[in-house]
Amino acid sequence: MEVEHHLHSTYGNKRPFTVPDNYFSDLSSQIMANIPVEEPVKTSDNTVKTKKSHFVLIRRVRPLAIAAAMVGIIMIAFWSFADYTSNQKSAADTPEKGVGESLSKATSSDSFDEAADYIMMDEDDMYTYVADQ
Fold first, then answer.
1. Pick from 9, 20, 116, 122: most CB atoms within 10 A?
2. Per-residue pLDDT at 78
């Protein structure tokens, strides 16, 4: 209560903001002046049509675009899930190979260099591996 009394005594009842004269009486006419007017267009058969803005087309197409986007998202999710489950099934069907089995397969194939790069094997490691056998 003391704070309110202090503010009232310091600043008084004067309002700091004012509204211009006839603001609300002229407001509706100012708003109507800012609204774009559709211009009539004469066609070849002497009929007058109003020119529609492109916003009307956007309003009609927007629900279709939203529906198409939703269908696309659902299709992508379905294909991703189907691909994921098929990869899981194929991984479950193939037995896991040990390092020795994969190395022996790599040595018997032409992709020995790729396998050596993958397991980070250099020439010294290869010589010691062959010497141990």
1. 116
2. 92
